[in-house]
Design brief:
7 helices, 211 residues, 2 domains, 9 strands, 24% strand
């Protein structure tokens, strides 16, 4: 959480040049948080507090005014309504988290309205110039590890949507290393619902899933 907090402070401080022209004394900053993200919410509030109470006026020449909404990602209307509410308040950027149900909605709105989304969520496929990732992608490291040790079979444990996103990265055919010519068999185990899924990925990148 400390690392995320430092990154947030640096990003907020980096808004100085642009913010001084439009907001000489305060900058509206949005926050969209989903369920079970208490650590990220605490880091966000702490970063706001540290910025606004900084004794160095050159580093913090303006105050950040947070506008926080809690969203239920299963309800697409609620996600859209929360984002529009943030936009109507004139936020300069939004610190938020997403899961597999809300990622496309949030990134699409940010691209269309040119609002930066600062997120500690795991990166997804594709890039957007208005999404600032605080967390590096694990896709390349995971695939390189499998290729280096020539693992044909492995088990991946996860209990959240974030874990599911990481576990499915090898399934994308454009991510497969060119040197991989063998089949992969890996088991996905979701301990939160006690579910086991076996996946077989062959050299032709044809995917077979067995529940």
């Amino acid at each position: 959480m400390r690392i995320i907090c430092r990154q947030i402070v640096l990003l907020f401080s980096g808004f100085w040049g642009l913010a001084m022209g439009a907001f000489p004394s305060s900058v509206q900053i949005g926050g969209l948080f989903i369920r079970n993200t208490d650590q990220e919410y605490t880091a966000f509030r702490l970063a706001i507090f540290l910025h606004n109470t900084s004794p160095n006026a050159s580093e913090a020449p303006f105050n950040l005014v947070p506008h926080v909404d809690n969203i239920e990602t299963a309800n697409s209307f609620a996600v859209t309504n929360a984002f529009c509410s943030q936009y109507s308040r004139g936020v300069f950027a939004i610190f938020g988290l997403y899961d597999k149900r809300s990622v496309h909605t949030l990134t699409s709105f940010c691209s269309a309205l040119h609002i930066s989304l600062i997120t500690p969520s795991f990166p997804t496929e594709g890039e957007s110039q208005f999404v600032l990732q605080l967390r590096p992608s694990l896709r390349g490291a995971l695939l390189s590890l499998l290729d280096h040790y020539e693992w044909n079979c492995f088990v991946f444990l996860y209990d959240t949507d974030r874990g599911l996103v990481i576990s499915t990265t090898p399934l994308a055919s454009n991510c497969m290393p060119s040197s991989v010519v063998h089949s992969w068999l890996y088991v996905l185990y979701n301990k939160s619902i006690n579910s086991i899924t076996a996946c077989l990925l062959g050299p032709s990148t044809e995917l077979n899933v067995f529940n």
